[in-house]
Amino acid sequence: MDALLLASFTARVLNELPEQKRGPFLELGCGVGAALLAVALLTPECPGLGLEQAPELAGAARNNIALLGLTERLSVMDGVLPGRESLRRCREWSRSRSRDHGDASMVFANPPYWRSQEGRPSPRALVEQARRSEDALDIFCAGAASLLRHKGFFCCIYDARAVPRLLESCARHRLGIRRLLPLHARAGRPAGRILLEARKDAADDVFMEEPLYLHPPAGGDSRWTRQALEFCPFLERSL
Questions:
Q1: Can you tell me the mean pLDDT for 8-28?
Q2: For residue 192, with 0-12 CB atoms within 10 Å meaning exposed, 13-18 middle and 19 or more buried, which class applies?
Q3: Does residue 113 fall inside a structural domain?
């Protein structure tokens, strides 16, 4: 669900840009490609690249891209952040796909939310790796800043309880906060996630959007609110 919500948010930011500035886009830590594919489906013609450190997940992402017939637009690269070689290859890819041979116009990510001792550990190593890391947020923000062009955009989804950590990391890497969208499971409950839009080399100029409530009151006929489905139509197909 987080990947699909991030994809809809990212695609909305891209589609608000003039057509000549909409690509290319990169996802850091693309996993099996859910968000990467969703952004591609919502932004026709934009080329995209996913960076993934787990070979089995990168392979699954390539298979999913092929199944949807998007191999001409999307690629997946094996690589580890903050490795210089990975960043260099991503930068070369962006410059080969952009109209002006520049860096990426959009980088997005769903970084691990928890540090050690936070949350419940998973028995599956890949899940645990995706959920927990001491310094992942700072690594992802630094990677985004390195790969973005001047005034390029960074979008991510993060634990709403750790917003100060997110804002501090963006500030360290010259990512000015532009928009925040709180995500609530239901009305009356605190936000569980926050969607963030930031811009490289820009001052903070924060617009706080109306909260997005994902589920109707308990006992309703629908799993998702109309508001949630309008924001992210993929939710209707998710399990």
A1: 94
A2: middle
A3: yes
Pairing of strands 25-28, 104-109: parallel
Q: Is 128 or 20 the better-scoring residue by pLDDT?
A: 20
Q: Cα–Cα distance between 72 and 90 in angstroms, integer?
A: 17
Residue 238 lies in a domain: no
User: Shortest CA distance to 15 belongs to which of 34, 54, 41?
Assistant: 41
Task: Please give the tally of structural domains in the chain.
Answer: 1
pLDDT of res. 21: 85
Is 239 inside any structural domain?
A: no
Show the domain range for 23: 2-233
Does 20 reside within a domain?
yes
DSSP per-residue letters across 44-80: TT--EEEEES-HHHHHHHHHHHHHTT-TTTEEEEE--
Summarised one tens digit per residue, pLDDT across range 64-100 is 999 999 999 999 999 999 999 999 999 999 999 998 9
192 vs 92: CA distance, rounded Å: 36
Distance CA 184, CA 84 (A): 37
Distance of CA 116 to the CA centre of its chain: 22
Residue with tokens 């950590």: 165
Question: 18 Cβ partners below 8 Å, 6+ apart?
Answer: none
The domain that contains 195 carries what CATH number? 3.40.50.150
**Residue among 196, 203, 147 nearest 171 (CA):** 203
